[in-house]
Amino acid sequence: MQPLAITIKQAVIKDLEILYKIEKECFIKEAFTKKQIRNLLQNSNAISLIAQTNGETAGFIIGLTYPNNKARIGHVITIDVTIKYRRKRIGTRLLNELERKFCRKGVEICYLEARIDNVAARELYRRQGYKETKQLKHYYPKRTNGVQLKKKLRA
Question: Which of 2, 86, 149, 150 has the most C-beta neighbours closer than 10 Å?
Answer without folding.
Answer: 149
